[in-house]
Design a protein that fits this description.
The protein is α+β, with helices and mostly antiparallel strands. The chain contains six helices and 30 strands. α3 crosses α5 and α4 (about 120-135) runs antiparallel to α5.
């Protein structure tokens, strides 16, 4: 009886229970594994932010200085003592120098100065400043500057004490006093070019092998008539240098152009001082046939009183645009379609073409991305949007155009939206590893755009980040 009851028992199958937490964990784990794999195997893409920039074509030349210079010679034979520094401004009738004609005045002048107790503090500061500037700018190749600093320090002493000592000796000693006949800048550098005029300049004027410069110092015994200093009556001066036929033509075209006078100028840098100048110019041809350019500098003459030649860096051409790395540039092929086949279609808000695919009967309107418009009136479109053999219909006409011709564009991949988009670039200049491209183009790049820096296997529409 009991055995029959056991045979009637039906076993109950337990339902399968799903562990939701475990399933969610496995899903997240697999998702993270996939993301990690994609991250580790992804292409390393570096980007570059487009910047505004400029490339300047420069040339360094040696220019000759012409200015209004009046030479002063010794009024009598004797020992000369100067009372001003190189580049000092002398007022009319101010004492420039004295000449000891009897052999005793110069000695007594220095004895009178030696008997004075001290220098004014302002003189000490000026001398320290001059010594510091000389030390920081000294060059073994310009050893003659040692004599210049010595002369300047002597002049500081004479300026400070000499006039007082000179006044104490007036009436008791015999000497010749040289005073300024006109107001101007005093210079002791004499080279024989003081009387040179623009009409006298030839190629030989720039032969430095024969060039000499004389600088006299206090205490020298000189004969009457010896040139000892010059007075520069105006801070304006001219800078003249020989130019090639090509540069002469470029400058001539600038001089006769329709530009305003403010734009008919040459920009340059004086290398010895770093002074940047923009000045008007004129051209002339010398008697020996050499072509010259002359810059008319209206000021700054006080800085170059003891110079006859200056090395200047000319800005010949300045091109502005956008800077991008050369490695970012790529070349891509596109189909070209005549501009007149494009029209607004559909809801009139999209611009594109009425296209019938090869092998199909019904045309459709397509609004592709336009990558450029050529000078001969062809739109550049992506080859992924069209195929060779597609037929394009001319609006309001029975004429058609069959897609077939391809042309190439130079460009770079813009990644502002996280994926690569081709943008055309027009290269203006090339320098080292950078390119200067035209800015403001309708199908190009703009300042602050992000582009692929090195095009290593990147294709258009690839997701970058």
């Amino acid at each position: 009886m009991a055995a029959r009851k056991e045979k009637n028992i039906i076993r109950y199958k337990r339902p399968i229970r799903v562990n939701v937490g475990l399933a969610l964990f496995l899903f997240i784990f697999v998702y993270l594994v996939i993301l990690t794999t994609l991250y580790l195997t992804r292409k390393e893409i570096r980007f570059y932010q487009v910047e505004a920039g400029a490339i300047t074509q420069e040339e360094t030349v040696t220019a000759l200085i012409l200015r209004d210079e009046q030479v002063r010679g010794m009024d009598a034979s004797g020992t000369v003592d100067f009372f001003l520094n190189e580049g000092d401004m002398a007022d009319r009738s101010e004492t420039l120098y004295t000449i000891d004609v009897n052999g005793t005045f110069s000695e007594k002048l220095h004895e009178a100065m030696a008997g004075m107790d001290s220098f004014p503090e302002s003189t000490v500061r000026e001398m320290k400043k001059e010594l510091y500037e000389f030390r920081t700018s000294y060059d073994d190749l310009a050893f003659s500057d040692v004599y210049l600093i010595r002369r300047d320090l002597e002049m500081d002493v004479l300026n400070s004490l000499g006039q007082t000592a000179l006044d104490s000796l007036r009436g008791s000693e015999t000497f010749v006093e040289g005073t300024a006949e006109v107001s101007g800048l005093v210079s002791f550098a004499l080279d024989g070019y003081e009387f040179l005029k623009e009409a006298d300049i030839t190629a030989a004027s720039f032969d430095r092998s024969e060039y000499t410069r004389t600088i006299h110092r206090s205490g020298e015994l000189l004969s009457a008539g010896t040139p000892i200093l010059k007075t520069i009556t105006d801070q304006s001066f001219s800078l003249i240098w020989p130019v090639s036929d090509e540069d002469y033509q470029d400058l001539y075209e600038l001089s006769v152009s329709d530009l305003s006078a403010a734009n008919k100028r040459v920009t340059f840098t004086i290398l010895s001082t770093g002074q940047n100048v923009s000045a008007p110019f004129h051209l002339f041809t010398a008697a020996d046939g050499t072509k010259f350019c002359s810059l008319d500098v209206p000021k700054y003459g006080a800085r170059y009183t003891d110079d006859r030649f200056l090395d200047i860096k000319l800005v010949k051409q300045k091109t502005e645009g956008l800077k991008i790395p050369e490695s970012a540039v790529i070349t891509q092929s596109f189909y070209v379609i005549p501009k007149e086949y494009a029209a607004y279609g559909g809801n009139q808000n999209t611009y594109g073409f009425l296209r019938r695919k090869a092998g199909e009967e019904t045309p459709e309107f397509i609004s592709p991305t336009f990558y450029s418009l050529s000078a001969d009136g062809y739109y550049y479109v992506n080859q992924k949007d069209f195929a060779a053999g597609d037929t394009i219909y001319l609006p309001d006409s029975d004429q058609t155009f069959v897609v077939a011709e391809t042309r190439e564009l130079v460009g770079a991949f813009n990644i502002n939206r996280g994926y690569a988009v081709f943008r055309q670039v027009e290269i203006l200049e090339h320098t080292e590893n950078m390119l200067l491209i035209r800015s403001g183009t309708p199908y190009g790049l703009a300042v602050y755009d992000h582009i692929v820096q090195e095009n290593r296997g990147v294709k258009e529409f690839d997701v970058i980040y």
